[in-house]
Amino acid sequence: MESLSQTVQQATTIELSGVRMRLGGAVILDDVNLSVRRGEFLAIIGPSGGGKSTLLRVIAGLLRPEAGTVSVSTPPAFVFQDYRLLPWRTVLKNVRLPADLGLGQMPAPEALKLVGMQDYGGYYPAQLSGGMRARIALARALAQSGEVLLLDEPFAALDALVRERFNDELLHLHDKTGRTTVLVTHSIREAAYLADRVAVLRDGRIVRVLDTGRMGRASAYTEGLEAELRALLGEGDSTRLRTEPKGRVGLGWLWPALAVVLGLGLWQVVAAALAQPFLLPAPTLVWAEFLRSKGELLPQLWFTARTAVLGALLGTLVGLLIGYPLGRSLWLERFLSPFLVASQSTPVVVLAPILITAFGFGVLPAVLVSALSAFYPIMVSVMVGVREVDRGYQELFRSLRASAWQRLIHLELPGALPVMLGGMRLALSLALIGAVVWEFVSNQPGLGFAVNQARAYYNGPRQYAAIVLLVLLGVALSLAVGSLERRVLRGRRQV
Question: Which superfamily is assigned to 270-488 in CATH?
Answer without folding.
Answer: MetI-like (1.10.3720.10)
